[in-house]
Automatic annotation (TrEMBL):
Residues annotated as signal peptide: none
The protein, known as: Oxidoreductase
Keywords on record: Oxidoreductase
SUPFAM superfamilies: NAD(P)-binding Rossmann-fold domains (SSF51735)
InterPro entries named in the record: KR_dom (IPR057326), NAD(P)-bd_dom_sf (IPR036291), SDR_fam (IPR002347)
Species of origin: Alteribacter lacisalsi
Length: 247
């Protein structure tokens, strides 16, 4: 197995949940990490924890992934601080589940902006450097909702299907370069993701079902990411689906 040691790993949405776990676990395995999100207070705390507990370097870059120039600046700051970018984890995302008849068009737009345009801006900003380096790894966080559609997940699923389509196309396009592409599709993971839902019917269902479903931990997804990153350079892990076992 290739080591993560010495790699520069950029994680969007590193201020909580899965992104935070990926950044921390990458630093534990001796990567230098770049922490991107909007809530810099939380990123600063994670940076302090990473530096004191793992001894690795962590750079905080305030980034709204819906703003193309901010994502470009994220990659530029990474290169000027660490000289390269080895791994980009396009993890930032929002899941504003609702029934389409509720017509929450602002939330549809937000999901498209963060979940799809955010990933595109990440690819746009990082891929030229990776191609120039002849090496790199783009990891896109989709979802099982990018494999199946549920009654309230039409728009969220549409964004996550789009993420998978981008991963699948990129993987083929880049297969003769040194750039690897991994699509990660988590099932339900314990995190803040559902806290932003505003549809009362969906919130009611979530409350009713709370305790019924055993969720994964963010670390379980970080392990899947680290598995893909730590393969030998010629091994391209393209698709990982991780579901909780309902035992
Ligand atoms: P969290 O809500 O805990 O984390 C979401 C992260 O995305 C936060 O760090 C948030 O940071 C960031 N984010 C949101 N909007 C923006 C933005 N405009 N610019 C930059 N960052 C943004 O949820 P999870 O950790 O669970 O979600 C991470 C990813 O995993 C998402 O893509 C989600 O769709 C996916 N996923 C999650 C599952 C789950 O069950 N939890 C299942 C399947 C997939 P900030 O607000 O500070 O900007």
């Amino acid at each position: 197995m290739e080591n993560v040691n010495g790699k520069v790993v950029v994680v969007t949405g590193a201020s909580s949940g899965i992104g935070e776990a990926i950044a921390y676990r990458a630093a534990e395995q001796k990567a230098d990490v770049v922490l991107a999100a909007r809530r810099t207070g939380r990123l600063d705390k994670l940076k302090a924890r990473i530096e004191s507990e793992t001894g690795q370097r962590a750079l905080v870059v305030e980034t709204d992934v819906t703003d193309r120039s901010q994502v470009e600046a994220l990659v530029e700051k990474t290169k000027s601080e660490f000289g390269k970018i080895d791994v980009l984890v396009n993890n930032a995302g929002v899941m504003l589940l609702s029934f389409m008849a509720k017509d929450k068009v602002d939330e549809w737009e937000k999901m498209v902006d963060v979940n799809v345009k955010g990933v595109l801006f990440g690819v746009h900003a990082a891929l030229p450097s990776m191609l120039e380096q002849d090496s790199g790894h783009i990891i896109n966080v989709s979802s099982v909702a990018g494999h199946e559609v549920f009654a309230s997940s039409s728009v969220y699923s549409a964004t996550k299907y789009a993420v998978r389509a981008l991963s699948m196309g990129l993987e083929k396009e880049l297969s003769k370069t040194g750039v690897r592409v991994t699509n990660i599709s988590p099932g339900a993971v314990e995190s803040e993701l559902a806290e932003h839902i505003t549809d009362d019917d969906i919130l009611e269902r979530f409350k009713e079902r709370a305790g019924e479903m055993k969720k994964l931990q963010a670390d379980d997804i970080a392990n899947a990411v680290l598995y893909a990153v730590s393969q030998p350079p010629a091994v391209n892990v393209n698709e990982v689906v991780v579901r909780p076992l309902q035992k």
